[in-house]
Protein backbone atom coordinates (compact mmCIF):
# COMPACT_ATOMS: atom_id res chain seq x y z
CA UNK A 1 0.00 0.00 0.00
CA UNK A 2 1.46 3.34 -1.01
CA UNK A 3 -0.54 6.11 0.63
CA UNK A 4 -2.13 8.81 -1.44
CA UNK A 5 -1.29 12.47 -1.10
CA UNK A 6 -2.18 15.51 -3.14
CA UNK A 7 -0.19 18.31 -4.71
CA UNK A 8 -0.15 20.17 -1.38
CA UNK A 9 1.12 17.09 0.49
CA UNK A 10 -2.14 16.45 2.25
CA UNK A 11 -2.64 12.71 2.90
CA UNK A 12 -5.84 11.56 1.20
CA UNK A 13 -7.32 8.52 2.92
CA UNK A 14 -11.07 9.12 2.94
CA UNK A 15 -13.66 8.46 0.23
CA UNK A 16 -17.30 9.52 0.49
CA UNK A 17 -19.54 7.44 -1.73
CA UNK A 18 -22.95 8.76 -2.65
CA UNK A 19 -25.20 5.84 -3.49
CA UNK A 20 -28.26 7.78 -4.58
CA UNK A 21 -29.44 11.32 -5.24
CA UNK A 22 -32.93 10.47 -3.96
CA UNK A 23 -34.20 11.27 -0.52
CA UNK A 24 -37.23 10.66 1.64
CA UNK A 25 -36.93 14.18 3.14
CA UNK A 26 -36.60 17.67 1.64
CA UNK A 27 -34.40 19.55 4.12
CA UNK A 28 -34.59 23.25 3.43
CA UNK A 29 -30.82 23.76 3.26
CA UNK A 30 -30.17 20.80 1.01
CA UNK A 31 -32.93 20.13 -1.49
CA UNK A 32 -35.46 22.25 -3.30
CA UNK A 33 -39.06 21.66 -2.25
CA UNK A 34 -39.85 20.00 -5.55
CA UNK A 35 -36.83 17.69 -5.13
CA UNK A 36 -34.25 17.23 -7.85
CA UNK A 37 -35.01 15.29 -11.02
CA UNK A 38 -33.94 11.80 -9.96
CA UNK A 39 -31.32 10.11 -12.10
CA UNK A 40 -32.61 7.19 -14.16
CA UNK A 41 -31.55 3.92 -12.59
CA UNK A 42 -29.09 3.00 -15.33
CA UNK A 43 -27.25 6.28 -14.84
CA UNK A 44 -26.29 5.54 -11.27
CA UNK A 45 -23.42 3.23 -10.50
CA UNK A 46 -24.27 -0.34 -9.64
CA UNK A 47 -23.01 -1.76 -6.35
CA UNK A 48 -20.44 -3.76 -8.31
CA UNK A 49 -19.16 -0.56 -9.96
CA UNK A 50 -19.00 1.26 -6.62
CA UNK A 51 -17.14 -1.75 -5.21
CA UNK A 52 -14.57 -1.57 -8.01
CA UNK A 53 -13.90 2.11 -7.32
CA UNK A 54 -13.56 1.39 -3.60
CA UNK A 55 -11.15 -1.45 -4.32
CA UNK A 56 -8.99 0.72 -6.56
CA UNK A 57 -9.06 3.50 -3.95
CA UNK A 58 -8.13 1.15 -1.14
CA UNK A 59 -5.15 -0.09 -3.16
CA UNK A 60 -4.01 3.53 -3.29
CA UNK A 61 -4.31 3.96 0.47
CA UNK A 62 -7.93 4.97 1.11
CA UNK A 63 -8.85 3.40 4.44
CA UNK A 64 -12.02 5.28 5.43
CA UNK A 65 -15.22 4.99 3.43
CA UNK A 66 -18.54 6.69 4.17
CA UNK A 67 -21.81 6.05 2.38
CA UNK A 68 -24.03 9.02 1.85
CA UNK A 69 -26.59 10.41 -0.57
CA UNK A 70 -29.37 11.70 -0.97
CA UNK A 71 -30.56 9.36 1.67
CA UNK A 72 -28.47 6.19 1.36
CA UNK A 73 -31.09 4.02 3.08
CA UNK A 74 -33.65 4.61 0.33
CA UNK A 75 -31.51 2.61 -2.08
CA UNK A 76 -32.58 -1.03 -2.09
CA UNK A 77 -30.41 -3.70 -0.48
CA UNK A 78 -27.79 -1.29 0.85
CA UNK A 79 -26.48 -3.97 3.20
CA UNK A 80 -25.30 -5.88 0.10
CA UNK A 81 -23.01 -2.97 -0.75
CA UNK A 82 -21.91 -2.68 2.90
CA UNK A 83 -20.96 -6.35 2.84
CA UNK A 84 -18.93 -5.88 -0.34
CA UNK A 85 -17.07 -2.85 1.03
CA UNK A 86 -16.47 -4.45 4.42
CA UNK A 87 -14.70 -7.28 2.61
CA UNK A 88 -12.16 -5.02 0.88
CA UNK A 89 -8.74 -5.26 2.45
CA UNK A 90 -7.49 -1.90 3.66
CA UNK A 91 -10.89 -0.35 4.39
CA UNK A 92 -10.93 -0.27 8.16
CA UNK A 93 -13.54 2.38 8.82
CA UNK A 94 -16.89 1.96 7.11
CA UNK A 95 -19.59 4.42 8.10
CA UNK A 96 -22.88 5.92 6.94
CA UNK A 97 -24.48 9.35 7.05
CA UNK A 98 -28.25 9.20 7.23
CA UNK A 99 -31.29 11.16 8.29
CA UNK A 100 -32.13 8.16 10.47
CA UNK A 101 -35.71 7.74 9.29
CA UNK A 102 -35.18 4.19 8.05
CA UNK A 103 -32.67 3.10 10.66
CA UNK A 104 -35.21 1.38 12.86
CA UNK A 105 -35.82 -0.94 9.93
CA UNK A 106 -32.22 -1.48 8.84
CA UNK A 107 -29.77 -0.81 11.72
CA UNK A 108 -29.26 -4.46 12.75
CA UNK A 109 -28.95 -5.68 9.17
CA UNK A 110 -26.38 -2.96 8.37
CA UNK A 111 -24.36 -3.78 11.46
CA UNK A 112 -24.41 -7.49 10.62
CA UNK A 113 -23.19 -6.68 7.09
CA UNK A 114 -20.12 -4.87 8.46
CA UNK A 115 -21.12 -1.24 9.00
CA UNK A 116 -19.13 0.25 11.89
CA UNK A 117 -20.90 3.49 12.77
CA UNK A 118 -23.40 6.13 11.73
CA UNK A 119 -23.77 9.90 11.66
CA UNK A 120 -27.38 10.99 11.94
CA UNK A 121 -28.63 14.39 10.84
CA UNK A 122 -31.04 15.98 13.28
CA UNK A 123 -31.73 19.70 13.29
CA UNK A 124 -34.50 20.12 15.84
CA UNK A 125 -35.95 18.43 18.90
CA UNK A 126 -39.35 20.08 18.39
CA UNK A 127 -41.69 17.93 16.29
CA UNK A 128 -43.37 20.78 14.47
CA UNK A 129 -40.15 22.57 13.66
CA UNK A 130 -38.51 19.32 12.60
CA UNK A 131 -41.40 18.88 10.18
CA UNK A 132 -40.84 22.33 8.73
CA UNK A 133 -37.08 21.96 8.34
CA UNK A 134 -37.35 18.57 6.66
CA UNK A 135 -40.63 19.61 5.00
CA UNK A 136 -42.02 16.06 5.28
CA UNK A 137 -40.20 14.35 8.14
CA UNK A 138 -41.48 13.21 11.53
CA UNK A 139 -39.17 13.71 14.50
CA UNK A 140 -40.26 10.47 16.16
CA UNK A 141 -38.94 8.44 13.20
CA UNK A 142 -35.48 9.97 13.45
CA UNK A 143 -35.40 9.50 17.24
CA UNK A 144 -36.46 5.87 16.82
CA UNK A 145 -33.66 5.53 14.27
CA UNK A 146 -31.09 6.88 16.72
CA UNK A 147 -32.27 4.40 19.34
CA UNK A 148 -32.14 1.53 16.83
CA UNK A 149 -28.57 2.46 15.87
CA UNK A 150 -27.59 2.51 19.54
CA UNK A 151 -29.23 -0.85 20.17
CA UNK A 152 -27.49 -2.36 17.12
CA UNK A 153 -24.07 -1.20 18.37
CA UNK A 154 -23.31 1.27 15.58
CA UNK A 155 -20.94 3.29 17.79
CA UNK A 156 -20.04 6.04 18.14
CA UNK A 157 -23.26 7.64 16.88
CA UNK A 158 -22.70 11.25 15.93
CA UNK A 159 -25.58 13.69 15.59
CA UNK A 160 -25.14 16.40 12.95
CA UNK A 161 -27.02 19.65 13.47
CA UNK A 162 -26.93 22.36 10.79
CA UNK A 163 -27.45 25.60 12.68
CA UNK A 164 -29.66 28.27 11.10
CA UNK A 165 -30.40 31.62 12.67
CA UNK A 166 -34.06 32.19 13.37
CA UNK A 167 -34.78 28.58 12.50
CA UNK A 168 -33.14 26.35 15.13
CA UNK A 169 -30.35 28.39 16.75
CA UNK A 170 -32.37 28.63 19.96
CA UNK A 171 -31.79 24.86 20.35
CA UNK A 172 -27.99 25.02 20.41
CA UNK A 173 -27.84 24.71 24.20
CA UNK A 174 -30.46 21.93 24.22
CA UNK A 175 -28.40 19.86 21.79
CA UNK A 176 -25.23 20.55 23.78
CA UNK A 177 -26.99 19.45 26.97
CA UNK A 178 -27.72 16.07 25.37
CA UNK A 179 -23.98 15.32 25.49
CA UNK A 180 -24.35 15.39 29.28
CA UNK A 181 -27.82 13.93 29.66
CA UNK A 182 -27.67 11.17 27.04
CA UNK A 183 -23.98 10.90 26.20
CA UNK A 184 -24.64 11.83 22.57
CA UNK A 185 -21.84 13.09 20.33
CA UNK A 186 -23.24 16.25 18.78
CA UNK A 187 -21.64 18.14 15.90
CA UNK A 188 -22.66 21.67 15.05
CA UNK A 189 -22.28 22.46 11.36
CA UNK A 190 -22.21 25.85 9.70
CA UNK A 191 -24.82 26.31 7.03
CA UNK A 192 -23.05 26.19 3.65
CA UNK A 193 -23.97 27.97 0.45
CA UNK A 194 -24.08 25.31 -2.19
CA UNK A 195 -26.21 24.52 -5.20
CA UNK A 196 -29.57 26.16 -5.54
CA UNK A 197 -31.86 25.77 -2.59
CA UNK A 198 -35.11 27.50 -1.96
CA UNK A 199 -35.37 28.48 1.65
CA UNK A 200 -37.41 30.26 4.24
CA UNK A 201 -40.82 30.88 2.74
CA UNK A 202 -41.60 27.33 1.73
CA UNK A 203 -39.52 25.90 4.48
CA UNK A 204 -39.96 27.61 7.72
CA UNK A 205 -43.05 29.50 6.91
CA UNK A 206 -41.77 33.03 6.91
CA UNK A 207 -40.82 35.78 4.51
CA UNK A 208 -40.04 35.46 0.85
CA UNK A 209 -38.59 32.65 -1.15
CA UNK A 210 -34.86 32.66 -1.38
CA UNK A 211 -32.64 31.34 -4.11
CA UNK A 212 -28.93 30.81 -4.24
CA UNK A 213 -27.87 33.08 -7.02
CA UNK A 214 -25.18 32.11 -9.44
CA UNK A 215 -23.40 35.32 -10.26
CA UNK A 216 -20.40 36.42 -8.27
CA UNK A 217 -21.70 36.19 -4.75
CA UNK A 218 -24.40 34.15 -3.14
CA UNK A 219 -27.69 35.56 -2.10
CA UNK A 220 -30.08 33.58 -0.07
CA UNK A 221 -32.82 36.03 -0.60
CA UNK A 222 -34.01 38.24 -3.36
CA UNK A 223 -35.23 40.80 -0.87
CA UNK A 224 -33.42 43.21 1.40
CA UNK A 225 -29.99 41.59 1.65
CA UNK A 226 -28.64 43.63 -1.21
CA UNK A 227 -29.14 46.81 0.74
CA UNK A 228 -27.81 45.39 4.01
CA UNK A 229 -24.02 45.09 4.36
CA UNK A 230 -23.34 41.37 4.41
CA UNK A 231 -21.25 39.84 7.20
CA UNK A 232 -17.74 38.84 6.23
CA UNK A 233 -16.37 35.50 7.40
CA UNK A 234 -12.88 34.59 6.30
CA UNK A 235 -13.40 36.89 3.39
CA UNK A 236 -16.60 35.11 2.37
CA UNK A 237 -19.46 37.51 1.93
CA UNK A 238 -22.45 35.60 3.12
CA UNK A 239 -25.64 37.27 2.15
CA UNK A 240 -27.82 35.14 4.30
CA UNK A 241 -29.34 35.86 7.62
CA UNK A 242 -29.54 32.16 8.47
CA UNK A 243 -25.78 31.77 8.73
CA UNK A 244 -24.40 31.42 12.28
CA UNK A 245 -20.60 31.28 12.62
CA UNK A 246 -19.11 28.59 14.85
CA UNK A 247 -17.60 31.28 17.12
CA UNK A 248 -21.12 32.36 18.06
CA UNK A 249 -22.26 28.76 18.58
CA UNK A 250 -19.30 28.19 20.93
CA UNK A 251 -20.16 31.32 22.90
CA UNK A 252 -23.69 30.12 23.44
CA UNK A 253 -22.56 26.66 24.58
CA UNK A 254 -20.03 28.08 26.99
CA UNK A 255 -22.91 29.40 29.07
CA UNK A 256 -23.35 25.72 30.10
CA UNK A 257 -19.73 25.23 31.21
CA UNK A 258 -16.15 25.33 30.00
CA UNK A 259 -15.45 23.39 26.84
CA UNK A 260 -12.43 21.13 27.24
CA UNK A 261 -10.63 20.08 24.04
CA UNK A 262 -11.09 16.39 23.34
CA UNK A 263 -9.76 14.10 20.65
CA UNK A 264 -12.39 11.74 19.25
CA UNK A 265 -10.99 9.98 16.23
CA UNK A 266 -8.04 11.87 14.87
CA UNK A 267 -8.60 13.48 11.51
CA UNK A 268 -11.70 14.92 9.92
CA UNK A 269 -13.13 18.40 9.76
CA UNK A 270 -14.55 18.60 13.28
CA UNK A 271 -12.81 20.01 16.34
CA UNK A 272 -14.03 18.19 19.44
CA UNK A 273 -14.68 19.38 22.98
CA UNK A 274 -16.43 18.16 26.09
CA UNK A 275 -18.53 19.90 28.70
CA UNK A 276 -17.57 19.07 32.31
CA UNK A 277 -18.78 15.56 33.25
CA UNK A 278 -20.33 14.95 29.84
CA UNK A 279 -19.99 11.46 28.41
CA UNK A 280 -20.63 12.72 24.91
CA UNK A 281 -18.56 15.19 22.91
CA UNK A 282 -19.30 18.38 21.05
CA UNK A 283 -17.86 18.85 17.57
CA UNK A 284 -17.67 22.02 15.54
CA UNK A 285 -17.54 21.99 11.77
CA UNK A 286 -16.82 25.40 10.31
CA UNK A 287 -16.43 25.08 6.55
CA UNK A 288 -17.19 28.75 6.07
CA UNK A 289 -15.85 30.84 8.95
CA UNK A 290 -12.63 28.90 9.67
CA UNK A 291 -12.21 26.59 6.78
CA UNK A 292 -10.28 23.39 7.32
CA UNK A 293 -9.08 22.83 3.73
CA UNK A 294 -5.47 22.60 4.91
CA UNK A 295 -6.28 19.24 6.49
CA UNK A 296 -8.77 18.00 3.91
CA UNK A 297 -8.26 14.27 3.43
CA UNK A 298 -11.14 13.33 1.16
CA UNK A 299 -12.52 12.63 -2.28
CA UNK A 300 -16.19 12.29 -3.16
CA UNK A 301 -17.93 10.06 -5.67
CA UNK A 302 -21.41 11.06 -6.83
CA UNK A 303 -24.12 8.49 -7.44
CA UNK A 304 -23.56 8.66 -11.21
CA UNK A 305 -19.85 8.14 -10.90
CA UNK A 306 -18.27 11.61 -10.93
CA UNK A 307 -15.25 11.90 -8.70
CA UNK A 308 -15.10 15.33 -7.05
CA UNK A 309 -11.77 16.60 -5.73
CA UNK A 310 -13.54 19.26 -3.63
CA UNK A 311 -17.05 19.63 -2.22
CA UNK A 312 -17.10 23.34 -3.03
CA UNK A 313 -15.82 23.19 -6.59
CA UNK A 314 -17.66 21.93 -9.66
CA UNK A 315 -14.64 20.14 -11.08
CA UNK A 316 -15.33 16.43 -11.61
CA UNK A 317 -13.66 13.41 -13.18
CA UNK A 318 -15.94 10.84 -14.76
CA UNK A 319 -15.48 7.23 -13.66
CA UNK A 320 -18.71 5.82 -15.06
CA UNK A 321 -17.58 5.75 -18.68
CA UNK A 322 -14.35 3.88 -17.89
CA UNK A 323 -16.25 1.55 -15.54
CA UNK A 324 -18.78 0.72 -18.27
CA UNK A 325 -16.10 -0.10 -20.81
CA UNK A 326 -14.54 -2.33 -18.19
CA UNK A 327 -11.43 -0.30 -17.56
CA UNK A 328 -8.76 -2.04 -15.52
CA UNK A 329 -8.25 -1.36 -11.83
CA UNK A 330 -4.97 0.32 -12.80
CA UNK A 331 -6.80 2.78 -15.03
CA UNK A 332 -9.26 3.55 -12.23
CA UNK A 333 -6.32 4.11 -9.92
CA UNK A 334 -4.79 6.57 -12.38
CA UNK A 335 -8.07 8.53 -12.52
CA UNK A 336 -8.32 8.57 -8.73
CA UNK A 337 -4.74 9.87 -8.57
CA UNK A 338 -5.65 12.51 -11.16
CA UNK A 339 -8.60 13.67 -9.03
CA UNK A 340 -6.33 13.74 -5.99
CA UNK A 341 -3.84 15.96 -7.78
CA UNK A 342 -6.68 18.23 -8.89
CA UNK A 343 -7.67 19.03 -5.31
CA UNK A 344 -7.52 22.79 -4.90
CA UNK A 345 -5.54 24.23 -2.02
CA UNK A 346 -8.74 25.58 -0.52
CA UNK A 347 -12.29 26.47 -1.38
CA UNK A 348 -12.94 29.87 -2.90
CA UNK A 349 -15.99 31.04 -1.01
CA UNK A 350 -13.96 34.11 -0.12
CA UNK A 351 -13.85 35.22 -3.74
CA UNK A 352 -17.53 34.52 -4.18
CA UNK A 353 -17.05 31.19 -5.91
CA UNK A 354 -18.93 28.09 -4.87
CA UNK A 355 -20.23 24.89 -6.42
CA UNK A 356 -23.44 25.51 -8.30
CA UNK A 357 -23.84 22.52 -10.53
CA UNK A 358 -25.29 20.29 -7.84
CA UNK A 359 -27.26 20.65 -4.64
CA UNK A 360 -25.87 19.03 -1.50
CA UNK A 361 -28.10 15.98 -1.89
CA UNK A 362 -26.51 15.34 -5.31
CA UNK A 363 -23.03 15.30 -3.81
CA UNK A 364 -23.51 13.78 -0.40
CA UNK A 365 -22.22 16.45 1.94
N1 LIG B 1 -29.43 12.17 3.84
C1 LIG B 1 -28.31 12.01 4.69
C2 LIG B 1 -28.35 12.97 5.85
O1 LIG B 1 -29.17 13.87 5.84
O2 LIG B 1 -27.57 12.79 6.77
C3 LIG B 1 -26.98 12.10 3.97
C4 LIG B 1 -26.80 13.17 2.92
S1 LIG B 1 -26.76 14.83 3.53
C5 LIG B 1 -26.50 15.71 2.04
C6 LIG B 1 -25.18 14.87 4.35
C7 LIG B 1 -24.99 15.97 5.35
O3 LIG B 1 -24.94 17.21 4.68
C8 LIG B 1 -26.09 16.09 6.40
O4 LIG B 1 -25.51 16.04 7.70
C9 LIG B 1 -26.68 17.44 6.14
O5 LIG B 1 -27.14 18.04 7.33
C10 LIG B 1 -25.52 18.18 5.52
N2 LIG B 1 -25.93 19.32 4.71
C11 LIG B 1 -26.76 19.33 3.66
N3 LIG B 1 -26.89 20.57 3.13
C12 LIG B 1 -26.12 21.39 3.89
C13 LIG B 1 -25.82 22.79 3.86
N4 LIG B 1 -26.34 23.60 2.95
N5 LIG B 1 -24.95 23.26 4.79
C14 LIG B 1 -24.40 22.45 5.71
N6 LIG B 1 -24.63 21.13 5.78
C15 LIG B 1 -25.49 20.59 4.89
FE1 LIG C 1 -32.22 14.42 2.34
FE2 LIG C 1 -30.05 14.45 3.87
FE3 LIG C 1 -30.51 16.41 2.13
FE4 LIG C 1 -32.06 16.21 4.24
S1 LIG C 1 -29.85 16.62 4.27
S2 LIG C 1 -32.76 16.53 2.10
S3 LIG C 1 -32.15 14.05 4.54
S4 LIG C 1 -30.10 14.32 1.61
Brief overview, please?
This protein is of the alpha/beta class. It has one domain: Aldolase class I (TIM Barrel), CATH 3.20.20.
How is the largest sheet built, in terms of strand order?
12-13-14-8-7-6-5-4-3-15-16-17
Radius of gyration, in angstroms, nearest whole number: 20 Å
Give a short account of the largest sheet: 12 strands, mixed
Structural class: alpha/beta
Q: What's the overall geometry?
A: globular
Structure description:
With 365 residues, the chain is α/β, with parallel strands linked by helices. The protein has one domain (14-362): TIM Barrel. It has helices spanning 47-60, 78-86, 103-113, 127-134, 139-152, 172-181, 200-204, 246-253, 320-324, 329-341, and strands at residues 4-5, 11-12, 14-18, 64-68, 93-98, 117-121, 158-163, 185-190, 218-219, 232-233, 236-239, 260-261, 271-274, 282-285, 298-301, 306-308, 317-318. It has a 12-stranded mixed beta sheet with strand order 12-13-14-8-7-6-5-4-3-15-16-17. Strands 9-11-10 form a 3-stranded mixed beta sheet, with no helix packed on it. The chain has a two-stranded antiparallel ribbon with strand order 1-2. β7, α6 and β8 form a beta-alpha-beta unit. The longest helix is centred in the first third of the chain and has 14 residues, at 47-60. It is globular and about 55 Å long. Residues 196-239 have low confidence and may be disordered. It binds S-adenosylmethionine and iron/sulfur cluster. Iron/sulfur cluster is lined by residues 23, 25-27, 30-31, 69-71, 99, 121, 360-361. S-adenosylmethionine (SAM) is lined by residues 23, 29-30, 68-69, 71, 97-99, 121, 160, 162, 189, 191-192, 194, 360-361, 364-365.
